[in-house]
Amino acid sequence: MTITIALDIGGTHMRVAAFPESEKKPTFHKRIRTYTNGETSIDRLINLILEAIPPGERVDAVGIAVPGPVDPEKGIILTAPNLPEWEGVPIPQRIESEIGAPAFLGNDANLAALGEWRYGAGRGHHDLLYFTISTGIGGGVISNDRLLLGAHGLAAELGHVTILPDGPLCGCGQRGHLEALASGTGIAAYVAEQLASGRSSSLIGKPETKDISQAAKNGDELANEAFQRAGHYLGLGVANYLMIFNPSIVIFGGGVTQVGDLLFDPMRETLNKSVLSKHYLQGLVITTAELGDNTGLYGALALARDSILSNPKL
Amino acid sequence: MTITIALDIGGTHMRVAAFPESEKKPTFHKRIRTYTNGETSIDRLINLILEAIPPGERVDAVGIAVPGPVDPEKGIILTAPNLPEWEGVPIPQRIESEIGAPAFLGNDANLAALGEWRYGAGRGHHDLLYFTISTGIGGGVISNDRLLLGAHGLAAELGHVTILPDGPLCGCGQRGHLEALASGTGIAAYVAEQLASGRSSSLIGKPETKDISQAAKNGDELANEAFQRAGHYLGLGVANYLMIFNPSIVIFGGGVTQVGDLLFDPMRETLNKSVLSKHYLQGLVITTAELGDNTGLYGALALARDSILSNPKL
After folding, report:
1. Which of A150, A156, A161 sits opposite B127 (nearest CB)?
2. Could you give all domains of chain A from N- to C-terminal order, each with its CATH number?
3. Are A48 and A7 in contact (CB under 8 A)?
């Protein structure tokens, strides 16, 4: 039996799964801390892959979702604030020399889009947008049955577009990005700023997104306004992307989307008012990710399987 | 000899050209008014095609660039303010029954991108953005060697994205779109509004874009500011598109771009400050269209040739 190895790497944890050929259910699945004393995280990655391979089995490919932009030709992570020791390191070559199978890197938000398209909520669609809304906003696009990568693999930075010129500061250093307006960090920054300016609320200091969500459900006016505002800007952003990509499905993942209608009601309201014509909304599916925490892992699986299909010599 | 017929249809003129197989130089080229007394514009289109076919030649396909969004599956124009009698009419079927060759419709801005990619400034690139800036702003995208169309052919409305929430009114009825900020109409509207509010300038009343351009070259402060402002917002918009598509080339066409650095200097200044990382600018070509008024015609040619290649039964 041939197996495919998929990994999802984060700044705190890394996960591996082993999938028998053509199967969607893994035979092995493990999650470990990315960093520990005494071992480099790249060594830990290699050992984790070795542990996932059943004795005597052949590995056809390894797919890896990483938290940063990837140069797909060189197989390196360009920048990874959470994984500084991985930046610029040719991880696939290292894996290939240790495991004897080809390895492929992809940006985790892009691969989440690929995973949801192949194995999750986006099955059967040809044009798909995926947004992950947590501390930041990431995205991935399937256009005409292919993952959008761009000339150097840097496309689909859907959170880093200017929605409000001179708006609030984004984690990237620019102002008014969708991420600065509608991510968990953006929502929390808005509430903190309003509290600091003397707004009355059941919240105090610098509350986290989950506290703001709870306060909103308890009727706190500022907390509700914070989600209303984030949803409004998210709707403006999504409307832009409908005009740009004309997708048939938009999928939302990430922790912040668990607040549900608190964010999605104002998003839909702005979206419906902001499209160029009703044609963009006809038959459009707006939904949440099906694969939960496994979107990146399934995207890595799809990447590995696609890569060996498109490189039959491997 | 087999020939391909290409047409570019506008609200005031329509043009036809006949291209021998595999050739880029037409053997016939004619431009007529779209409307006249006594004939419908669709009848004029059919007669123009018939006139373009040399006696005894076989036509393999007809490609048509039209000024409005197209449903590529149904082969109809969805909305065309300048060609109301074409809306919803199955033009390709009519042509096929009269000419005996398959016909294919495409949105003119999309086809301009296709034309510049195949025959113009974008040759050899795999990821290309094309903007046409005239009274409006249209666009087209080549992503991974394919024209971006979306689920219903409505993608790449690059001028109709919100850049400045609650900004100036766009021709489409929305506010703050790139088109409302950086098109000729947007520039003229800004100057007219500033003049109405009492700004001093060599311009008076409601000047046209070409007068504003002339005034700017003569040192008029308001006129210069108008292009500075348009270029700034264009730079914000293009920066967004770099993060979304990561192209290797951006091509500008359309009458307003003839003002040159008056628009492009502030655009580049904002663009350089607004990208997420320097990687987006590495090796990026920013240039103007090579095919001039013929971009749509060459796009229609490329559409016709591609369509018969991908439908070998034809």
Report:
1. A150
2. 2-111+293-310 (3.30.420.40), 124-289 (3.30.420.40)
3. yes
